[in-house]
Amino acid sequence: MSLLPKLKLLRGGTPRRKRKREAPPGLIQFMESSRAIAALIFFATVAAIVLISFVGVRSLDTPVLPNQTASTRIVANENFVYESAELTRQQREQIRDRLPPVYRLEFEPLRQFEADMADLLAELVAFEEAFPADAASSPEADARLAEITAGFNAKGPYRTNPDDLRALLFLGDADQRFAVTENALLVLREIYAQGVHDNTNLAARTQGDVTVFQIAKADEVSNQAVESLENALTLLRINLNAEGIGRPTTLSLFRIFRNGVTPNLVFDQDATTALQQSAIANLGPVIVTVESGQTIIEPGTRVTTEQYEMLVAHRNYVLQSGAAQADARLQLFGRVILVLAMVLACTIYIRMKDLETLNSNSRLGLLALVVVTNLTAVRVSYELASLPFFIEHSELAAVLPYIAPTMLAPVIVALLIDSGSAVFMALLISIFTGVIYGNRLDLLVLTFLASMVAIYSGRQTRKRGAIVRATTWGGVVVATFALLIGVVDRLPPISVIQQMSAGLVTGTLTGVVVVGFLPLLESMFKRTTDITLLELTDYNHPLLRRMQIEAPGTYHHSLVVAQLAENAADAIGASALRARVCSLFHDIGKMVKPEYFTENQREDVNPHDFNNPSLSALIIKSHVKEGVDLALQHHLPRVVINVIRQHHGTALIRYFFYQAIGATKIQADSNPPIEQGRSTPPLPGLDPVPVSETTYRYDGPRPQFKESAIILLADSCEAASRSLKKVSPQGLAELIDKVVGDHIADGQLDESPLTFAEITRIKSSFNFTLLNMLHSRVAYPAGDKENKTSNASEA
Questions:
Q1: Most confident of 160-174, 190-204, 292-306, 408-422
Q2: What is the 3-state secondary structure (H, E, C) of 250-274?
Q3: Residues pairing with 540 in the sheet
Q4: Within 10 A of 152 (CB to CB), how many other CB atoms are there?
Q5: 588 CB-contact burial (10 Å; exposed 0-12 / middle 13-18 / buried 19+)
Q6: DSSP alpha helices (H): ranges in 489-612?
Q7: pLDDT in tens, 14-44
């Protein structure tokens, strides 16, 4: 060592620099553990939840769609009148259904039959000329008559036979046949003018034995009695009997002329539509009057189109008239009791499952903040329903429950505190989300399930991208159940797609927001996530790089302690990552004066040889304060700073303490006593000073949590193991037992939550790890250098 460094060491080192300090410990302790502040957080949270979840929340704004099952009762707040387009449409449909169809009388079949009968009479005249009376019974005449019959039947849906035509032929001469035929056709004209139906037309009214239809004639529609096909044939038979031509001939003529009787009632679409339009034109819109207190929608029932229209009309009336926004049925006192019960249940749960959180005001403040923030976001999404845009586009209002970021608080709590508190937080958020949206049980269950999936997917997250992935899985759950609910409620496909998209996008954006705000929350509430801890394990961190250069012995010591602490923490179920990170930084204060620590000393020069024991002890103790200072300057997490402060507890610096005792004893023995209790000092005018143990103890505090206690033990065991000349399992176990036992006897573990069973597992882990680290090599036999080099390379 050169002369200048030695002079600096004799002078006591470099001038002291001003340390960066935290808030006074007393203030921090008060803010962290004051029951008054905890009570303030409790009641402030209750007030905020009541304000967010109930004040101003109206059942009127509950987003519903037609055919959807209503979850809450919606009641009219004011008297109002509206024009119901739905009821008007229904009334018009009823009018269309009630109005009978309009028919017209079709005469074309009659005209065709008249023409066919004229042709038949002409052919019969020609038949008479070809076959006189004496030849009318010849085979040729029969064949010709059969041919005439077939030709007549082929002209229409006629069914006659040669015998019937022969009866008409033998009725008389051509004039007589024409007269009888004309009388029969006259009867058919009267029948057609009256109308003939075949009983297949159901849109008719019966008045006694008469069937009445609406018949279109010219420009008017009138009711007219229409004969059935059977009655029309009966009327034809009666008129033919009146001719007095004998029964056989009458029956033959009936069989001929009945071919001309067909139903001639034809549906007239144009006349029917014109009649309906005329009736509808005289119908005014339906005006509905709703009284205050009248139920618009009943819970548990499917929302009809009429109810949905009434709800929209009510919303428009309230918006336009400026009527009172609050529902008169909301009783504030009852809501406060409900919120008190829920928050109290949450407190009891934390008391049973996580007492550490209940005793930490910072954790309670974090819980309160994320709950209030999350419910505020839900309330904002709910309030969007009152905007004119969503009132005009009511189908989009049904998407709003799916954009509420209900996974926000549970995921943050899972990352910053623990999964148990996050589960209860998810239930709390889901309950009040369901309350805000009109006591919707389906929404409560859906949001709770999505939050649980996000919490499960994000457990032990060590990358920020995993947070977004976890909340996206929650969004997938929301989208899936939105599809199922939409199918059950028979919602329009476009509404189902909108709800699914909203749930998926909200899940992804929730993860992005959590990633963005997580560092801020970690800084505000002095919490540290595994993500931040994993980032600190980078050996290129400025402090670790500096330690590698300025204090390489301390750096190697920190690596060994990190391995010991990590394995031991894993053995007892503590946070192995936290133990490793805190171990890496626990001795960073030694970088200020690295030459005062054995692991960094070179050239066989020990600066403590130039100091008295109390000054050396002070320098050794100062590495804790220097470490805290460096940690604050580099913004290390609170947990790391706590470990730096606690990793020696209030342990005794034994080497210098016993050195001081030895020096005092030598001093007392070398000076004869002058009087009782005093001895002659080595130098004139100075008295021997008794050794104070406080001077040689670290300032503490003692370890407060498991990882800190593990690091205290690992630090001591690693340092002690360096003094072993020969490492054996038995010797190492005895050394570990002694070191741990000394700390227990000294009370260093009294404030830590470690149990004796856990301490036993910790010692076993230390023994296993150190045995593997401090293993010995096989001694190489004497030989040539090449042999040694070869063996060394193989080893």
A1: 408-422
A2: HHHHHHHHHHHCCCCEEECHHHHHH
A3: none
A4: 19
A5: buried
A6: 493-525, 530-536, 542-550, 552-572, 576-585
A7: 445 555 555 555 566 677 778 888 889 888 9
**Assessment of whether the complete model's pTM goes beyond 0.70:** no
* Residue of 515, 534, 578 whose CA lies nearest to 711: 578
Cα dist from 26 to 31, 34, 36, 335, 633, whole Å: 9, 11, 16, 39, 21
Contact 455, 419 (CB under 8 A): yes
What is the number of alpha carbons within 13 Å of residue 159 lying toward its C-beta?
4
Instruction: List own/partner pairs for 313-319 with CB under 8 A and 24 or more apart.
Output: 313/80, 313/82, 313/84, 313/288, 314/60, 314/74, 314/76, 314/77, 314/80, 314/290, 315/60, 315/61, 315/391, 316/82, 316/391, 317/78, 317/80, 317/82, 318/60, 318/77, 318/78, 319/386, 319/388, 319/391
- Give the helix/strand (H/E) hosting 386: none
Given a contact cutoff of 8 angstroms between Cβ atoms, the answer to whether 405 and 378 are in contact is yes
* Sequence letter at residue 151: G
Q: Is the pLDDT at 748 greater than 90, yes or no?
A: yes
Per-residue model confidence as pLDDT tens digits over 83-97: 888 888 888 888 777
Q: In terms of DSSP bridges, do strands 265-267 and 102-105 run parallel, antiparallel, or are they unpaired?
A: antiparallel
Contact in structure between 76 and 314 (CB atoms under 8 Å):
yes
- Burial level of 388, CB count in 10 A (0-12/13-18/19+)? exposed
The two structure tokens encoding residue 229: 């096909």
Task: Summarize the confidence of residues 613-642 as an average pLDDT.
Answer: 92
Lowest mean pLDDT among 61-65, 380-384, 537-541: 61-65
Pairing of strands 210-217, 220-228: antiparallel
| Structure tokens that stand for 103 in this block | 């028919």
The SS3 assignment for 779 reads: coil
Dihedrals φ, ψ of 266, to 5°?
-120, 135
Confidence of residue 455 (pLDDT cuts 50, 70, 90): very high
Q: What is the distance between the alpha carbons of residues 787 and 795, in angstroms, rounded to a whole number?
A: 12
760-785 mean pLDDT:
77
Q: Using omega within 30 degrees of 0 as the cis cutoff, is the peptide bond preceding 701 cis?
A: yes
Residue 461 confidence (pLDDT): 80
Residue 558's beta-bridge partner residues?
none
Instruction: Give me the mean pLDDT over the 318-322 stretch.
Output: 69
Measuring CA to CA, how many Å separate 565 from each of 411, 534, 580, 706?
29, 16, 6, 10
Contact 439, 467 (CB under 8 A): no
Q: Which of 620, 574, 573 is nearest to 597 (CA)?
A: 620
Percent of the chain topping pLDDT 70? 83
What was the pLDDT predicted at 735?
93
Q: Which two tokens stand for residue 671?
A: 């000076």
Are the C-beta atoms of residues 448 and 428 closer than 8 Å to each other? no
